[in-house]
User: Fold this.
Amino acid sequence: MECLQSLPACRSFGDHCTHYRTFCAVPWYAQALEKSPFRDKIKSVQQTAMVPFGLYLLAALQLPAQETPKPRRQFEVASIKPNNSGPPRVYKEPFALSPEGRLTATNVTLVDVIVRVYPTRRIQLQGGPYWIDSDRFDIVAKADASDRPLEPGQWQTMVQAMVEDRFKLKYHRETQEKQVYALTVANEAPKLEPSKDGEVTSLTPGEHGQMIFRKMSIAGLVNTMANILHTPVVDRSGIDGFFDFTLDPNGFADQEGDETPFRRKEFGERVIAAVREQLGLKLERQKAPLEITIIDHAERPIDN
Assistant:
């Protein structure tokens, strides 16, 4: 089949003849067709279907090659040793990362590491052996000898690679409808003091059961509440920043002759009351879809 129009009428790639709805056989087009891996298929379609042939040529010439996933950058060396000192009495940030790519994690559980580098929280973890919450480790890891500085967020994927290699971690994710608490602002303004310069994030128990928060974000409060209430907590307060505050749930404990609405409440209920009365925030029950991370397999690492 030949083009019935004169060759100059085919101005550029994409112009076609009106009589036979097929592309003009200009030399560059013919060469491109011969080099296409879909040459035989395209010719067959052209001869039998009478459709705009350029669509098939575009598919042949512009089909993107499959991209090979970039390998995750890994630590050059990593030491993981048991720590038998027990849980720390005062919470302090256990992870430290130097600009040179040296990571230290002191007295941490496997769960501590997972919730730090994967998009999940303890309350949204299921499965795994019993020791992932109790066995503690000291981790020291050094990035490879590359001169490239670590990119933002890159160290998390490096720790993921280390955990999947050394702890043989395997997991999958599911979305489940769950009962949750939503943290919102109460009627009055939140009772939160901005943190002071030079403070470090910490949660310290007081003499009478208070919880003393320093340089704590609302996300940190949410995670603490989720662990205490054994229920996922979602942040819907819209509050950003770091704050100093104290929660005293035992201020709502039973007292002889106490006729307040908080009488005989369980500890979790006292915590909810303390959040409302002492912080000006509310915890309300709702249902929401949550992504649950299910641990299929994990092993204790070999000492090194």
Residues 7-62 form one domain. DSSP finds seven helices and 13 strands in the chain.
